[in-house]
Amino acid sequence: MKNGVFANHKIFAANSHPELAEEISSIIGKPLGDAKVSKFSDGEISVNLGETVRGCDCFIIQSTCDPVNDNLMELLIMIDAMKRASAGRISAVMPYYGYARQDRKAKARDPITAKLVADMLVAAGADRVVTMDLHAAQIQGYFTIPVDHLVGLPLLTRYYREKNIEDLVVVSPDHGSVPRARNMAEPLGCPIAIVDKRRPEPNKSEIMNIIGDIEGKNCILIDDMIDTAGTITNAANALKDMGAASVRACATHPVLSGPAIERIKDSAIEELVLLNTMPIPEEKRLPNMIIISVGPIFAEAITRIHTNGSISKLFD
Questions:
Q1: Active-site position among 36, 39, 197, 284
Q2: What is the percentage of the chain residues whose pLDDT exceeds 70?
Q3: How far apart are CA 260 and CA 203, in angstroms?
Q4: What phi and psi, each to the nearest 5 degrees, are found at residue 290?
């Protein structure tokens, strides 16, 4: 290490999102490091590093998406392997941070699993975490190591700016996404609206009211993730029923679990824009789905981290 910069950096990937890892390494101009992540016959995870990491600045690309526990254990074990092999610094690059929605005690005796995951990453030996659009920004404070929190919103905003859609309204599907909607609406020069709903039970939502003028407008629904798609499709259908000219939707994390695809197919959503923070299988891809890669942002972030550059300048 010279002047605080490691002489060499290496990029590795576990099994969660090999396509994104290949894209990031290609943009940086370095091949992926030699690492094999497999399973023993009893289901335990095996990590084998095929090259030296001694003194190197190591980046492990791994989204902790479905299967969440396998992907998380792969990441933890690879971090441990590198730590024991005397890596100079280990950065966990997690485009999607699993368990982020369990960020507080919503009722008595609830776990705070987002904090538990943070503790496990630090205990395994991670020196830094790089992630995107945490479900709750305060998760950064769960760590005792640096967290670089990248933002997917500029990618989505740029897409709609280039489309040059008239009479736009950016719509938050719930009160929690209002800041996100405002941050998109400002560069697009359009107003926002809010869907006021109540949630009778987990993964089910009921539309109550639309706050704002959406009649005759082209609406863009924005959220940080689409999981079972109940919230976003109910909101889209309500907007259309209340007079919206068209409804589009966008999100950073395409979880798309359970009935999500059928709900999106049957909804008023004309176009769905998603970022590839996790893989989207072919069977879940729809004709009206646009996928934008986060590869260039993560490649630039990795380069800046390695050279001690500013991450915040990525979004200037």
A1: 197
A2: 94
A3: 11
A4: -110, 130
